[in-house]
């Protein structure tokens, strides 16, 4: 069967993609961030997953506020990388596995998640910003992507607990797929940051590190936070952290954190963290954790 072998939490700041495309990886302001991704890319190269399953949000690039779904799954062989104003990027289309995507979609609907589905739509920096830092892309990506978009822009937003439960349902969907695929689950979004209003530039490094510890060791404790709590602790845009909880829900209760890099350069706490599942944990997931 398909199995999840680990997870990655990563920021998806659009300027990361711009700096990458301009070859600024060694610039003093950017090197601490780009260097932080190298151990994760090395780990992926060693593990050779077939699939990266992304929980991300669209930034009103493909979906707009006149019809913005709570949860949306992309199904297609290829997804173009969006031009978000800086020009087309030199990246190949993101590859998809239609059979696997369709299986996950059907499993989630049967698990009583009311999913929306999209095809032939561009993917913005929610995925395309970190993706080339994780995977090589010449001449093409080494595997496929399952894109699952979560609404963190237009209220009402899904709760942290609902996102965590979505991740648990995704795990069940993956493990019910009959082909032998290795899957790494990726949750994207910045930690503390606010880019508008009276608290523009707000960060909370103490909360960021507390979140990362609790996220790893006791994620259920985070599922009771209201949206107002996320905003108070980390700034308005830090509500993106509920997408990390979807990733965490898809992973085993106990994990090994194999890498963490935290870098606060400007207005956004930019982070990449990697977690690995042991074979025993992957096989012996408690049933009550999947309710």
Structure commentary:
With 291 residues, this protein is an alpha/beta fold. The chain has one domain (3-290): Protocatechuate 4,5-dioxygenase, Chain B (3-Layer(aba) Sandwich), CATH 3.40.830. Helix content is 33%, strand content 19%. It has helices spanning 14-21, 31-47, 98-110, 125-128, 131-134, 160-175, 205-217, 227-234, 241-249, 279-283; strands spanning 3-10, 51-56, 71-74, 78-79, 94-95, 116-118, 144-150, 182-188, 256-264, 269-276. Strands 6-3-7-2-8-1-10-9 form an eight-stranded mixed beta sheet, with helices on both faces. A two-stranded antiparallel ribbon has the order 4-5. Helix 3 packs across helix 6 and helix 6 (160-175) packs parallel to helix 9. It starts with a strand and ends in an 8-residue tail after the last helix. The model is unreliable at 282-291 (pLDDT under 50). Its EC number is 1.13.11.57. This is Gallate dioxygenase.
Shape: globular
Question: Roughly how much helix do the residues carry, as a percent range?
Answer: 25-40%
The CATH architecture would be 3-Layer(aba) Sandwich
Give the low-confidence spans. Answer: 282-291
Which fold name is given in CATH as the topology? Protocatechuate 4,5-dioxygenase, Chain B
By secondary-structure content and strand pairing, the structural class works out as alpha/beta
């Amino acid at each position: 069967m398909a199995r999840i072998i680990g997870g990655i939490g990563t920021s998806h700041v659009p300027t990361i993609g711009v700096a990458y495309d301009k070859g600024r990886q060694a610039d003093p302001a950017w090197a601490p961030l780009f260097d932080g991704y190298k151990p994760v890319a090395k780990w992926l190269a060693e593990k050779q997953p077939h699939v990266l399953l992304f929980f991300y949000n669209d930034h009103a690039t493909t979906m707009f506020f006149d019809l913005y779904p709570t949860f949306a799954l992309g199904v297609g062989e290829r997804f173009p990388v969006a031009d978000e104003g800086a020009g087309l990027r030199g990246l190949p289309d993101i590859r998809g596995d239609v059979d696997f995507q369709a299986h996950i979609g059907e499993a989630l609907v049967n698990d009583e998640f009311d999913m929306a589905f999209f095809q032939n739509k561009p993917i913005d920096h929610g995925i395309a910003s970190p993706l080339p830092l994780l995977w090589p892309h010449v001449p093409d990506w080494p595997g496929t992507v399952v894109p699952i978009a979560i609404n963190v822009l237009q209220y009402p937003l899904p709760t942290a607990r609902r996102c965590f439960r979505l991740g648990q349902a995704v795990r069940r969907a993956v493990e019910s797929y009959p082909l032998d695929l290795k899957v790494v689950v990726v949750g994207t979004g910045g930690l503390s940051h606010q880019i508008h209003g009276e608290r523009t530039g707000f960060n909370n490094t103490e909360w960021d590190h507390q979140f990362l510890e609790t996220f790893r060791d006791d994620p259920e404790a985070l599922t009771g936070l209201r949206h107002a709590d996320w905003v108070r602790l980390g700034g308005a845009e830090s509500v993106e952290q509920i997408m990390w909880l979807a990733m965490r829900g898809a992973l085993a209760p106990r994990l090994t954190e194999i890498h963490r890099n935290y870098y606060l350069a400007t207005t956004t706490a930019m982070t990449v963290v990697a977690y690995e599942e042991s074979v025993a944990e992957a096989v012996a997931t408690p049933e009550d954790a999947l309710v």
